[in-house]
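Quality-control log, excerpt.
Job 1 of 2 completed; input and output follow.
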Amino acid sequence: MASDTESSSGQDMTMHEVYSHFPELPLTFTRHNHLSNVKYFQSVSLLLLLLATLGCRREENNVKGQFYAVSVRSGDKFLYLTDPALNKDIDPAQPLRIEFNLPPDPATLSGSVRLLKDQAETPVSVSMEQDKVAVIIPGSPMEYAATYTISISDELKSTDGRDCTPFSAGFITKTGLLQVDSVISSGVALTANPPAQNVDRNFSARIYFNQPLDPATVNTTNVKLYRTNDFAGIQVGLEQNNRVMTVRADQPLRDFEAYTMYVSPLVQGLGGYRMQQFSRVFYTAVDPTPKFPVISDEALLDLVQEKTFRYFWDFGHPVSGMARERNSSGDVVTSGGTGFGLMAMIVGIERGFITRNEGVQRWKKVVGFLKILPSATTAPGHTG
C-alpha cells in the first residue's frame, strides 16, 4: 500500500489535485475506494479533460458573440443599437462609421453591410478608416426626413476568423430646410425691406426656392394672396424643374392697398425638404384711372368756391343763422366765422349760388339775432 501511495504521489496527478484545478468535475469516489480504482479514474479523467481542452481551443474562434459592433455613429452622433426610436435628426450628409471590438476582415465586409431606405436597398461603398472602424458611404446622398436601417450580417468575419454577431439599427434623417431665395413681381423684389411699393395691380410673381418643390403640395390651399378680410383669386404653377413657383392674380388688385403673399409650411420640397411659413407684405400702385369726371380749371375753381360758400350757408345755425365753429360743434357758433360767412353770401349772390332774396333773409336773421342778444355786461356767461 505504501508503494502504491508513493507512485500515485509521484508523476501521476492525484484526484485531489485534479479537483483543486477543476472543481466542477463530479466527485465519484470516496476515501474507502481502492487505490487501483482511483488510479484508473485518474487516467480516464485526465484524458477527458485533455480532449475537452483541445476541443475548446478548436471551437474558440467560431463562438458567436465574441466579435461584435461596439458603436455606430453619424458625425459626432452615436446611434442607439437597442432603441431605434431614439435615432432621430441624423445628418444625411455624414457617412456612417461602425466600430468593432476586433478588426473585421475587409474581404467579408462589403458583402455583409446593407443600408435600407423604407425596405429598399441603397448601394453603399465600404472602407476601413482604422483597424476596427468601417466607413459606410451611400452610393447616392441619403434623403432628408427619411427612415433608414443599417445592418451587419453574420457573413462578416474578424481577421482571426470569428463570426460577427448580426445587428441592425434604424434611424431617421433630419429635415432639410426649404428656403425662399427671392420673390420677383414685374421686376420688383418683394423680399426687400421696407415692403415693396407701387407693385403692378395686374399681379404676377415668381418665387425662387433653394430646392425643387413637390408638385402635389403646390396649390391654392397652401398659397394665398390677401388683404384685410379679402382673399384674391390666384393661379399657381411651377417652372424651371419645380424650383420656381408662379403666382398670378385672376383680376387686378385694388389700388394703393397692402397685400400679403403667404406660403404655408405644407408646401414641401422633394427629398424631405420642409419650410417654415413664408409671408411678404407689399403695396399696390395707384390706379391712374380718374375717380371723378374730368373738368376744366375754370369749372374746378367754380366748384371750390361753391363748396366753400356752402359751408357757411348749409351749416348756419337754424336759430341765429350764424356760422358754426365747425360742422360738428352743435350749437356753438363763431362771431369771426360768421363775418366770413356774411361776405361769402354776397359772393354767392353774385355767382348765382343763391338768390338775392335768400341772401337778404339770411342777413336779417343774423343781424336780428345779434340785435336782441344781451351784451356781456348784462348777461353773465354770454359773449357779445
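Job 2 of 2 completed; input and output follow.
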Amino acid sequence: MALSVFGWLWLQRTGAPPAQDSLPTTPPVLQTPSTTPTPPADAPPTPTPASPDLVLAPAPTPPTPPPAKAPEPTIPLDLSPGATNPLGTVVIRSNRPPPLATATNTAQDFSLSDTNRPAVGVSTPRQILGMQLALVRRGFSSGSLDGKFGLQTKSALRAYQEREGLPASGTLDAATRNSLALETDLTSLYILLPEDLSRMRPLSKTWLAKSEQDRMDYETVLELVAEKSQSHPSLIRGLNPEMNWEAPQAGMTLVVPNVERPPLRGRASLIRIHLGSKTLQVFDAEGKLSLHFPCSIARDKEKRPVGELHVEKIAVNPNYTFNPEVFPESEEAQQIKRKLIIQPGPNNPVGTAWISLDRPGYGIHGTPQPEQVGRTESHGCFRLANWNAEQLVKLAWVGLPVQVDP
C-alpha cells in the first residue's frame, strides 16, 4: 500500500510515460500538447485504454474551425480601349491590314490648305471631306474629292438641300448636318496589286502616236488611285505624304477616301443640263432628283445647244475616232488630214463612257482629266468625270429626253 502511494506521488511530479502500443490519441491533460499532433476535427474519437493505476481527465473538445472566408466581390472589367484593369491594359485589335508606317489616315493631317472655307458650318478639311463623301453616297457629286469648299461642292450641297426640303443655304447648317449623318469613316485602305502596276502606259503626246497605242490606260499609279477613289491627286498625296510615287510596288498600302456610290434604282426619266451652273442632273421615274454632277460645256457659246435633245446611242469603254476637221486649231490635225482610231481606256479622249445625242457631233461622256471637269471647256460635248459618266450610262436609255437650259 505504501509503495502504491509513493508511486502515485512520483507520477504526479514527473508525468506518466506515453503508451507504447497505442495509436496517436488525444493527449491527457497532464501531457505536453506539442508532443502529439491534433487529429482533424471530423475524425472519429479514438478510445483511450483504461489503467487501474492512472486516472486521466476527459479529452478536451476539439477547437471549432474558423468560418470560411467570404469570396471577394467581383470587380467588373472596363473593356474600353486603353483601360487599365488588374489583369492588364485592354487592347482592341483588328484584322484589317494596317497602313504603312509612313502613311496616315487622319484627316487633320491632310497636307491641304484651309482656304475657300464656307462662311459658317464647316471649317476644316476633315469636315469638308466628310460632307463631300456624305453627298456622294446620296448621289450628289462635287467632282474630284479634295477637302475644299469650292463652287462645285457648294452647288452639290445646295442641290441636296433643295431635294430634301431644307433651306438652300449652300452651307452645312445644323439641319443639313443631321440630314447627311456624317458619322462615317473618312478613309479606307487601298492595296496596290500587280494587276494595277501592269496597267501603266506612257501617254503619247501626239494624235498619231496615241492611235498606235494598244490601250489608253492609266499613266501613273497616282492617277489610278485618285480615279478609283474619285479624288483629286493632291488629296491622295496629302493622305500619303511619305509615299514614293516614282517607285510604287505591289503590296503597298495607301490611305484613300472611303467613297461609296449610291445604289441605282430603275432608270432615268429625264437628264437636265444647266449651262449657267455647269451641272447635269438626273431625275427618276417619279420626277425626283436622284443624281447631281458637275460638267464641262462648250467653249464656244454658239456650240451650246439649248432645248430638248434625246439619247441616241450608249457605249461603255468606247474607242474614239479622231477627226482632224473638229480640231482646226491643231497643226498636227491639219498635217494628218485623215481620221484615226484611239483605243479605249480611262485616258481615251471621251473617257470610259459615251452617250450620243440626236444632234450630230454632240454627246455626254467621260474625260481623261476628271479634276478639270467644270473648270475647263470642251469643243461642244458635255464632259463628266469618268466615275459619274459610268453611273449615268446605267440609267440612260435610247430616247431618254435631255433638256439643256441656259
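Post-run check on job 2. The chain has a mean pLDDT of 78.
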